[in-house]
Structure formats: C-alpha cells, structure tokens
What we know:
By secondary structure, this protein is mostly beta strands. The chain has 2 domains: 61 residues, no CATH class; 281 residues, Outer membrane phospholipase (ompla), Chain C (Beta Barrel), CATH 2.40.230. It is 9% helix and 53% strand. The strands form 4 sheets. The protein has a 12-stranded antiparallel barrel with strand order 4-5-6-7-8-9-10-13-14-15-16-19. It has a 3-stranded antiparallel beta sheet with strand order 1-2-3, with no helix packed on it. It is flat.
Amino acid sequence: MRYLLAVLFTACLVHSIDAQRNPLGFKERPLEVFLTEHKPVRFVNSVFELLPMQLDPNYLIPVETPDTFWSHLNKLSLDLSQLAFVNWNAGGSNSISSLLGINIKRNYKKGLFQWNNEMIIRYGINKQSGQSLRKTDDDLELVSSLGYKFSSTSNWYYTGRASFKSQFTKGYNYPDRDKFISNFMSPGYLFVGVGAEFNLPEKKLKLNLSPLTQKSTFVLSDRLADQGAFGVQEAVTDDEGNIITPGRNARHEVGILINNEYEREIFNNIKASTRLSLYTDYLNNFGNIDVDWELNFEFEVNEYVKASLGSHIRYDDDIKTRAENEDGETVLEGPKVQWKQQLGIGVTVLL
C-alpha cells in the first residue's frame, strides 16, 4: 500500500510541474518542428542562438562563424624558354630567357564593408650569345580600394581607390646602353579617386567608376625631366642649350578613371582575363583618353604546368616620341600606341 501511494504521489508531482511549465496548455511538439516553423532568436554578442521560449531555454545551438574575414592569394609563376644551335645550317643565336610573375591579394570583407589589396610584379630577362643581359619585362603595381555596399542586396559599392605603377630597374633602347630611358619612379604613376564599384564575385567581374580622380606622374630622373619625358614639363633652355629653368619632376591632373576586370573560363582548362583602364583629364584636352589594356590567356596543362599568352596595349596622349630625321637631328613626334606581346610556358604555384 505504501508503494502504491508513493507512485501516485510522484505521478501527481510530475503532472503539476508539467502544468507549470505549460500553463496555457500549448501542444507539445518535437524540437525539429520548432526549428522549421520558428526562426531562432539571436542574442547580441553571442555565438549561440536560443530556441523559442516554448522549448526549454537551456537548449543552445552553436552558430558557425568564419575563422577570419580575410581571404588571400599568393601566386608565383616562372616562365622559361631556351634556344640552342649546333652546326645549324640556317643559322641562329643561342638564347635563354625567363619571366617571373608574382600576384598577391589580401581582401577583407565583413558585412557591407570590404577592403581589397593587390600587388602585381613581373620581371623578365633575356641572354643571347654575343650580347649582354637584357631586360624584357619590368612591372610593379599596387592597388588598394575601400568599399561600402549600397545595401545588403546591391552589387554596388561606394569606393575610394588608390593605385601605383612603376618599375624596378633601368630600361634602355637596346643596343644603346649609355643612357637609360626609364627607371624606378621615372615614370611612376599614382591614381587616387572616389566613386562607385560594381562587383560580381561569382562572375569575377569588377567595374570601378571614379569621376573624381587625381593622376600624378612622377619623373625623378632630372635628365629625363629636363627632356619632358612621360608628359612632364620640360626644361627651358637658351639658344645654346643651357638650362635656364629645370624640368619638373611631377605632373598632376584631375579627371575621370574607369577600371574594369573580368575573368572567365572560355574552354576547358583555358582561362581568359582582361584588365582595362581608361582615363581622361578634365582640364587638359578633355576627351583624349589614356588607355592601359591587358588581355591574357592561360592554358592549364596540369596543376603546376601552365602556358600563357598575353597582350598589353598602352596609349598616353601626353607621352611624345622622339626620332632622328634624315639630318641625324632628334625631333619630337606625336604619341604612339605601345604594344607588348608575350608567350611562355612555365610553372605556377599557389602558396
């Protein structure tokens, strides 16, 4: 009898506790049903989500959060080519050339804010029998942009963008090696502007519009600055060629800058990428557009071995060319289209 009374008392106690936990008589449902019918309630500054209060408030579910808001890319490539001749009747010159490429990206994205940074380095050399070592490519580029998204559903960002371009070593008009025609910061280009950017990461498409951009051209070599190279103001001389006023080492402009980047796999293991920059100055010949366009194709042999074909076109209305006339005098000519083409096969490593 005592055992029967104990069982009845325990049953009544359990029913009483259950009634207190559910005083309005809500129908009990499994946890999975609540997860699908009710959105969890997030507590601020917590890495947990709390289920609706009809369930036991002690049920906590962990929320997946990224380890870091940074993404990165370290890409290293080395292209090599070599020619050798032994008793070759058609003639030829032994040669070897190499091209080193480095592409580093550090991007930060959190909520509506993003900060993208990129460094591009290319340096190539060539050695032929009977000739000294020559430079075939030399490029240094740094780009940094800050963006804030229009809204959570928009692909447009308010942006501030800065970019710098120059080279590492002296360049010559071969075979003349007596006087260099370019050097580090001769020229150097700095662009700083504000505007908007359209970004589709899944399509690898970027379009940056900067209607207010300052372009600064630096020529730190006094000799090149006196010549008015790369668009800076040349030196003022007398009739005998003596310098009265030295040439300026910098030129500043304000205008519109448009940048476009796009990458796509056009065929299996064949990728095409393009980078286009268009700039025009508001005050100096508005409408004359400076063009900097790169088009590259990458052919993937396997994970490490790749072939590449690239084209680079530049046109700057402020850069005048010099040539010798029939009398051997150096005369100033108008701007011309600059074109560079590269074909190579080598090794690419992602670090």
